[in-house]
Amino acid sequence: MSAPIAAGVGAPYARLLSVASYVPSRVVDNAEMCTFIDSSDEWIQQRTGIAERRWVGEGETVETMALAAARTAVERAGIDPADIGAVIVSTVTYFHQTPSLAAKLAYELGTNGAAFDISAACAGFCYGLAQAESLVRSGAAKYAVVIGVEELSRFTDIHDRSTAFLFADGAGAAVVGPSETNGIGPVVWGSDGSQADAINQTSEWSEAMQGGTQPYIAMDGRAVFKWASGFIADATKKVLEVAQLSPEELDVFIPHQANNRITDAMLRHLKLPENVVVARTIKQFGNNSAASVPMAMDQLLSTGQAKSGQTALLIGFGAGLVYAGQVVTLP
């Protein structure tokens, strides 16, 4: 008979200790966007809710944005960086295959803990949050930093009338740590690879390396809208169910900032009370993919629209097609 193997022992529960974001410096309003495509401010706002978006300016990159957001989150959490056991970065716009962005950020943050990148598009932050919660509870990490960061402006065909006005840049980060009471509910997540072509890149990077054109984001807007307003609305309802909460017990709803019409469809499906605060940061920030949820959370807290200790439902969804969501107590 083999010798028994000890199991890891961690915290009884985990919670969000802090959240922070980095908003790029360049403001691109719809008037400027319409110099690239044949559209109008009225049409863009009516179809998406976007009035302006943020793109990186001089000296701003995926790495600088992620590090700024993560450093602020660590400072707000008041923890020793050396105690960070894991750094998880979600991004689809870091164009170095190796080493991971997470490993570089871990060093800059002052930890030699585990570090890895994940590719889960707009659901990435919620994917990372689920992993961080498990790491803290298992004892694999005392604290974990989850970062969502994108430089989508670099990956967007600004002359494509169907996508150019949607995508933007930014970073959001959160620190997850031990708690005596539960602050992060069970994750509801999954994928539908049968619709992988609904959001993808136009070509492989190898083609660009051989003198071809740079790949860009391509999207079947109708397919994504149908999936998000139907299937994802059902999944969001399940997030509440597994957390054993009713809509009346929710204070804040923070969906991925993809499109205001999708958010409206979710609200109708969930039948949330009118007093629930709903994130609508898409108006000034656009679609920030993996950075969307933490950026929205930080903005709601920093502006006083949401408060520490309130109960919030998070849901992310995007290319894959993938989705993930959980209920959390706001830091």
From TrEMBL:
Family annotation (CDD domains): KAS_III
Gene Ontology MF: a single term: 3-oxoacyl-[acyl-carrier-protein] synthase activity
Catalysed reaction, written as an equation: malonyl-[ACP] + acetyl-CoA + H(+) = 3-oxobutanoyl-[ACP] + CO2 + CoA
Subcellular location: Cytoplasm
Domain of life: Bacteria
UniProt keyword list: Acyltransferase, Cytoplasm, Fatty acid biosynthesis, Fatty acid metabolism, Lipid biosynthesis, Lipid metabolism, Multifunctional enzyme, Transferase
InterPro entries cross-referenced by the UniProt entry: ACP_syn_III_C, ACP_syn_III_N, FabH, Thiolase-like
Location of region: ACP-binding: 257-261
Residue ranges constituting the Beta-ketoacyl-[acyl-carrier-protein] synthase III C-terminal domain according to the UniProt record: 240-329
Function: Catalyzes the condensation reaction of fatty acid synthesis by the addition to an acyl acceptor of two carbons from malonyl-ACP. Catalyzes the first condensation reaction which initiates fatty acid synthesis and may therefore play a role in governing the total rate of fatty acid production. Possesses both acetoacetyl-ACP synthase and acetyl transacylase activities. Its substrate specificity determines the biosynthesis of branched-chain and/or straight-chain of fatty acids.
Subunit field text: Homodimer.
Similarity comment text for this entry: Belongs to the thiolase-like superfamily. FabH family.
Designated name of the protein: Beta-ketoacyl-[acyl-carrier-protein] synthase III
